[in-house]
DNA sequence: CGAGCTCTTGAGATTAATCAATAACCGTGG
DNA sequence: CCACGGTTATTGATTAATCTCAAGAGCTCG
């Protein structure tokens, strides 16, 4: 992966980009891609590094090429809630807004494919196909945020943990284009604290519930960041969600 | 308001529409408005009526003209979470999706300005200005959803109630184009149960915290649905939010 | 091999949920 | 106009879940 990453970062070639057909550029024709490419640059961050602070000026937008980042919001007294998880192909930044609304932190090593904001905004005007893709992605994110509202508002601590693992397992499975089922191993690119911030829990509760799921055989921990799920279906049951997948189109 | 409503519903004239410059049609020129108008129709619902059930086919999209609706999601065992509040000018439905992802319920008497989905989707392709407005509105909704994540994940029951009242007061103030400050009276078009579903609480807790805010003089109740806020600033303090408003552009 | 993290586990405090009873409101019809 | 039934809201007592505070264990990396 770091080797890949270096390759991409140096060559800057869209045709070998792992998110070429899933990111905001997904539906681009060659000419549109060319226009995007002319304003494109890469940035890399190490796990833990801050990409932007809420309130700071932000002159670029971009796509996650690899790694993972979290959007975070805070109350004055320091209580913290993660409000978004950016995985490969997800879009970062808001066209038309110069100031970041959320703090963005790399939760694992991260590569971003960036576009300067102004040229990108012009491109959005001129190229409905790109604007359309961005609308589609934003609607998907809104749906994901709404699922998260249900999780935060109504699920128990155990269900929250299981739900997070389900989401990560599904994304991991999607990467290798296989349905999530049976025995799955996932990498957890999050500390217990980051998980807690995402789930609206304390890190102690996260730890306790991870232990409980382990004790009950729903998950097996290999070290602290590698999780084996012996039966994905069982995990879905623990998550409290409707067992039969999502909504058809 | 019902008189207005009837007028609008019968005349179907965009130029006297109360959300003409705030809804998805906001930036439309006369010709675009004409195209929209040709596929437009109105629907009205009484408080409590269901607009669509999650999973049902939905062949229209539209804007809230007056009243209020809630988007609701459920777990299998019945636990319910409201995941969106649609106020006047808000957009309902998702272009490109034929099946409703959420149950939509009128929480007060409601008037929708609807467009058949297919023609609207064509219009989105042909008219970047409309697509652009929809993108902007969707991004705003996403921001609102993320604020709500912070509320559900990290705020106390009392702060949740105060936050909801702040939001309603701000929207009410925006309608009459005045900043929210000083003494404000708002109409609560929600039952205690709907408030609970929105805030991730039980209705008993909502009731208790409303009583507590009343006891502490933060709010005055006139009947059950009318709330007087003697000092908007004090209410904002109770909400736990950063006191200094929102993010500048 | 020890310093500094991150994570786990325990005990007790706190918040909100649950279960239960009563009160207030609303529309209807006598 | 008022009594009645049904709904919605309030309040109380108890329970359950999660948080808080605290101590110790396990990794990781110089």
Strand order of the largest sheet of chain A: 1-8-3-6
The general outline of chain A is: globular
CATH architecture call of the largest domain in chain A: Sandwich
Largest interface, with counts of residues having CB < 8 Å to the other chain, equals: A-B, 51 and 51 residues
**N-to-C order of helices and strands of chain A:** HHEEEEEEEEHHHEHHEEH
> Which value, in Å, is the CA radius of gyration of chain A?
19 Å
Largest sheet of chain A: 4 strands, antiparallel
The number of distinct structural domains of chain A comes to 2
Helix content of chain A: 40-55%
N- to C-terminal distance of chain A: 34 Å
Number of helices of chain A: 8
Average of pLDDT of chain A: 91
Q: So what's the CATH class of the largest domain in chain A?
A: Mainly Beta
Examine the coordinates and then state which fold CATH places here, giving the name of the CATH topology of the largest domain in chain A.
Answer: Jelly Rolls
The low-confidence runs of chain A, each spanning 5 or more residues with pLDDT under 50, are 245-249
